[in-house]
Protein 1
Amino acid sequence: MRVAFKAGFVKRSLQRYGVVAMVLLAGCKVGPDHTEPELPASAAWHSELAEGLTAAPTDPDVLASWWTTLGDPQLSALIERAVAGNLDLKTAQSRIRESRARRSIAKGAMFPTLNASGSATSRRTDTNVGFDSHGEVYSAGFDAGWELDLFGGVRRSIEAAQADLEGTEENLRDVLVSLLAETALNYVEVRTFQSRLAAAQASLATQSETYELTAWRSQAGLDDELAVYQARYNLESTRSQIPTLRAGLEEAMNRLAVLLGEAPGNLHRELAEPRAIPLPPDEIAVGVPADTLRRRPDVRRAERELAAQTARVGVATANLYPQLTLNGSIGLETTSLRDPLSERTWTISGGPRLSWPIFDPTIRPNIEVQSALQEQALIQYEATVLACLEEVENALVAYGQELQRRDNLRQATEAAQAAASLAQYKYQAGLTDFSNVLDAERSLLSFQDQLHQSDGTVTSNLIRLYKALGGGWTSLAVVPEPKTAKQH
């Protein structure tokens, strides 16, 4: 009967304080509420769009897998391997799991805590009159506590943890955008070095024939030794460029392997066969600034970091106000484990506890610290927006200007090829000096090398443009939440 009475007392107490808790939990949240900053409302890019670029809305599917527009299956395969193996991407995924755990910690403060305890004590009493006693005492009990979130400090901390989680998700997307771009850029660099190397080797073969011709003509008395020496240093000059090109090719392959999460040298056999530099599509939609800013993961991350810091101002502000905790405990003490209810003592206690920091010189300075950090987060957000716009504007200019430069180099290379053929013909016919052949061959090799570099630069600038537009991150889903995790 007494046990039933005590159980009823505990139940009524919990009901009474539970109702009070529900009322108090509906209290206010101190501190500022986050409002998303407005983005610049520019309707068009400042830079004049080059031929092939349009202000039409970007196709989400095209932007999600922009590398496929280059029409290179090997590049697509390498990008898939980079997404699966890149270590920076795995680190970003691990940070998401860390942020989810931190959010769970913050949510845990909303719920009561319950602790169980037990002990066994042996007692012996001796007196000077010869009386002694011996026995064991066993005790067990439960303690519960619940700090009520009267002024929203805990809820603000949950808001901050949620915003931090969303920021790490945007960071993963930003890492992915950079990874895709870097993988494609290094692949294009590999193909560019291979094209330049092939052109240098072809020029070397032509100059070797020219050197043999001048040597024959000198031996036949048709030319002096000056032409032989000139042909020789022209030949060796071209040969000296080949080691530098091979070194650049090796470095590009090694960088590409590391991006894929593989050891340097793993891609050499796979990429040994030279292939043409991927060419950009005929038409590219770039959209408008507002769309790009909404899509860019770094801008979205900066906005989430601002939201998290705004919530932390509320966490600091809540420390100015009282804290109410509901405490309760129930305990049993007995001298027998066989029949614990025969000789026992029940202990039941419960009630609220109010605490209020009347004087704490650190609270208001901490609010000022968090407010200053919020201001810095806002400034960083604005700086990120401006940097994003600058990156796109520069990418648009670079792509358009390199297209024009490539057209000019193509015409110059065609003219240099014709000049070299004509100079060679006139020299063999004895109608011109060998110095003209020398100049023509050097000019042809220079223009061919510049043209191959420009082909690579055009495609690289397109890749940088896609990166500046925030393309590619939607091709990878954020790490899914564990199915066993409880969502509060």
Protein 2
Amino acid sequence: MAPVETAEVNADRFARVLGLAAVDLWSELPRELQQTLFERAVLLGHQTERDESLREQLAQFLHHHHERTAAR
């Protein structure tokens, strides 16, 4: 019998696949939407003092995965 997935497990899975979709489509998104998503990700991800560099790390990640900047 397959294990029953909890709502929390489903929520984590859904958040993960939505995040992957956003990264995959990032270069096609309007700049304003990119900025909104970026700022919300920083806000949601910043939970402790150790997260102070999250903004820079996330910017580098997107820069390396962005269609127009990855080749630079």
Protein 3
Amino acid sequence: MKSKSIFFNQFFDELNKEAIDYCIMNGYEDYPEEIGSDIDIVVNSYIEFEKILEQLSKKLNFTIIQKMEHKHKVANFFVAKEYDGVSSILSLDIYEHYVVKERLLFDSKYFLEDKESLKNFYIPNSKKEFLYYFVKKIIKQDVEENIDQLIKLYQEDANFELYFKDNSKHIHEAFSNKDRNYFLTNKKLLRSDLFNSTQPLTHLKVFEALRVVKRVLNPIGFEISFLGPDGSGKSTIIEELKTRELPFRRVDYFHLKPRLFGAKGDGKPVVDPHAKEAYKGLLSYLKLFHFMIDYIIGFFVKVLPLKMRSSLVIFDRYYDDILVDPKRFRYGGNLGFAKFMRHFIPKPNLYFILTSNAEVIYERKQEVSFEELERQIEVYESLVDNKRYIKIDVNRDVKEIANEIENIIYGKLDERY
């Protein structure tokens, strides 16, 4: 059995012992053998569920690595547990009610009062599940992709009148006649009818405003940077990491800096990093000033908005590379001044220093002399503090390296939670 399936069974076996009423809303047919992205769970108490989740984390030895609040009493919890050095993640989409545009469309009691047992978890009554599923598809405007499944699940006594005051009769007729074209041509009309048939609630508007403010002040994204000499495998490791199931909505990549100004970096290998001479005098300090402005303003204009949208922001290289290899960036000014100005640069949550023996890296790439490579490795390793700057030995399989990096990130996320 897959580690994710084992984790699933352990979690729900324990959850069933707790005083919490819940049911998994959809996509559960192949659980626990096959688990997709999010596990949608409605609960009778969002606050109690979070308390129980914290208790179970200690009992089952997993970590809560992320909490994304979508609405009031609606959040996506990501929990991770290591199996043989590899993190397995369950994405738990928890809600006490289903709210759209400050409209309370379904509350938990509606689903939980007649829930049914399946395997080692609970599911909603099929009639209520169908109505919920249909309403969601109308809101998301993707009925056409799911019309066959909807027709299959259709219940003649579904209470469409609650949500579609003007079109409930037509909806019943279309389902009875398997009239797919009706839903394709009227999906916008049905969405409008749904919102006209329900009213926004003032207190939910207030809670939503507070949630947005909280997201701005405490963004739940995460920013990391990879530092290391040419040949340390930065690009390969980043690409491997991007293939993983990560507790973020998206992954965004930057080469060296945000690039608020100038051409966008493509991250392609530099064949001869020391080919051009360093700038002299004032030009060198202007180069450094350009870098600083790009990092500082670029953080607020580009990076911070991404972190607010729960992105994993990855930098291939960062300002610190100037201190290690100033020739590469044609900086000929005072290195102590560049070190001092580093204090004003926004810092990623974590830096991964990718190094190994100089012989290993030199065998991969010979873009600088062996002596220069040794010097660079020594300076890179001097940055390591095992807090924000973490050393990663790259003389091993890329999947093993990515596993270690994932676990380190999740440890930091757990501390933040």
